[in-house]
Design brief:
The protein has about 140 residues and is of the alpha+beta class. It has helices spanning about 50-65, 110-115, 125-135, and strands at about 5-10, 15-25, 30-35, 40-45, 45-50, 70-75.
Length: about 140
């Protein structure tokens, strides 16, 4: 078997990293090749992911790692961005640590999917979720 290498990009709540995983046919070798801070941005009293900074850091890590056979990316399970019909991001995703949704009951029927997947303990981003529910017919 020929040697293979894959990149693993992990974006956590406070930092991210790019790891190159090499397999020579018998052994796996992991090497962290790039690490970066993930600092949310407060805009008009709302905490957002700094998506442009994250995108820049992910690209820098991929360049530093060099050639790979594939790439996998892991991020938070609860936050998301909405795209327009052309596939462009409508706005920076709201960070799960934002306080706008404090006090919203997580046992609301609209959150049944989150409850089933044990994500409901995270704060719910009402504005984005309402948009998703509206467009999906909820």
């Amino acid at each position: 078997m020929s040697a293979k290498s894959v990149l693993a990009v992990d974006i956590g709540a406070e930092s991210g990293r790019v790891i190159i995983v090499r397999f020579d046919g018998q052994r796996l070798a992991l090497e962290e090749c790039y690490r970066f801070a993930n600092v949310p941005v407060l805009v008009e009293n709302t905490l957002h992911w700094d998506i442009l900074r994250l995108w820049n850091d992910v690209q820098a890590g991929i360049r530093k790692a060099g050639k790979a056979d594939s790439i996998g990316i892991d991020t938070s399970a609860i936050d998301f961005g909405l795209l327009d019909s052309a596939g462009h991001l409508i706005g920076n995703p709201v960070h799960y640590r934002d306080h706008r949704t404090d006090g919203i009951p997580v046992d609301h029927p609209r959150f049944a999917v989150l409850l089933a997947n044990e994500c409901a303990s995270q704060r719910i981003h009402q504005r984005y979720n309402d948009a998703v529910f509206q467009y999906s017919g909820w």
